[in-house]
Amino acid sequence: MNAHAGAPRVREGGSAHWWRRLRAGLRGWGGVGAMASVCALAVTAALLLPLSQPAGDGAPAGHGVTRAVQARADDCEDPQDRSLSPSGGDGKTPTIDAVKAREDRRLVVGVDTNSYRWGYLDPNNPSGDLEGFDIDLVHRIAEDLLGDRDAVRFKAIPTSRRIEAIQKGEVDMVVRTMTITCDRLEQVAFSAPYFVTGQQVLAPKTSQVTGFDKSLADRKVCSARGSTAYDNLEAGRKEGVLPDSTDIRTTVPNQLDCLVKLQLGEVDAVVTDGALAASQAAQDPAIELKGGLFTDEYYGVAMKRGSDDLVRRVNRILEDYVEDGGWAESYEKWLHPTMDTDGRKSASATPPEADYA
């Protein structure tokens, strides 16, 4: 078993095939393009609200009584299939009503601001607006809930604080390439999955590292704190997929910080989601993806436990987003140019089907 219950299962040697929802293996990943420049990160601090500010007007995000059956980490399988169905409930919408009652009537959403094509600030965009696949989804949720796609207050959330920000009511939700796991389901609520990918290794082209395998012996590997990447590194050592000598102690608040450490020679490899790893490989011609994807990662919108009405509404929005072509349009704009390579569509080009608890 993995070191952390509910973490995506490691594919030993990259040979096992764990996909349940998709019929085709994930392949055909390409570079996701150059990352936004470092100066965009500086702009973030000036444009985005500090994390210490509550979600809004004294009303904590996601208040209400939990009535749904929640997954337990010790008996949980397929966590991506454990969200609430869009229909059902008692018809009351206390969480959504609290958002609408705010003086500024805006949704507060935790996002990434330095992941190119997912959530980032383009220094060449004079509007200074956030851009990317996750950002498009946030705008769609705001439009449906509040009738205005721009009725959003974005907050930059580091990888390590995603769950804490939700639990403390600093945000109503997090839309930030966040993998649905059983452990996390005990801490926050998730929507149905809106994207599927997997973990991958990033290392210098000249490196003898070949992937998530024995070639990581005596290597320093970086991952983001609180990420499924670290969970899988820890599990990989315990299960014997990785050698005991693999040094996984280097963790950072944001996964992009691992790229900097790799470029400075402070670590030998990085483990992160394949979509994010591809964008980092495209940024620096001296590094590349090593080996294939070795886990299943289903991204979901994370919300506070007990906010059943908001979870159900977001799931309805996701279904409509797929059915009316909004999801495909966003994928085409942000991810198609680099993920669909060699004339082939990546399996990630198809939104995952939703099963509900």
Shape: globular
Strand numbers in spatial order across the main sheet: 5-1-6-15-7
Which percent range fits the helix content?
25-40%
Distance between the termini: 23 Å
Total of DSSP H or I helical runs spanning 4+ residues? 11
Which class of secondary structure composition applies to the elements? alpha/beta
Mean pLDDT: 82
> For the CA atoms, what is the radius of gyration?
19 Å
Count of extended strands: 15
Low-pLDDT runs of 5+ residues are 1-54, 57-73
The secondary-structure element order is HHEEEEHEHEHEEEEHEHEHEEEHHH
Strand content: 15-25%
Largest sheet: 5 strands, mixed
Oligomeric nature of the chains: single chain
Short description:
With 357 residues, the chain is of the alpha/beta class.
Supply database-style keywords:
single chain, 357 residues, alpha/beta, 5-stranded mixed beta sheet, 15 strands
Molecular structure report:
The protein has 11 helices and 15 strands. It is α/β, with parallel strands linked by helices and 357 residues long. The strands form 4 sheets. The chain has a 5-stranded mixed β-sheet with strand order 5-1-6-15-7. A 5-stranded mixed β-sheet has the order 11-10-12-9-13, sandwiched between helices. The longest helix has 16 residues, at 308-323. The chain has helices at residues 38-47, 94-100, 133-146, 162-167, 182-185, 228-238, 256-263, 274-283, 308-323, 326-334, 336-339; strands spanning 107-111, 114-115, 119-121, 130-131, 152-156, 173-174, 189-190, 195-197, 199-204, 220-224, 247-252, 269-273, 287-290, 297-299, 302-303. Helix 3 packs across helix 9.
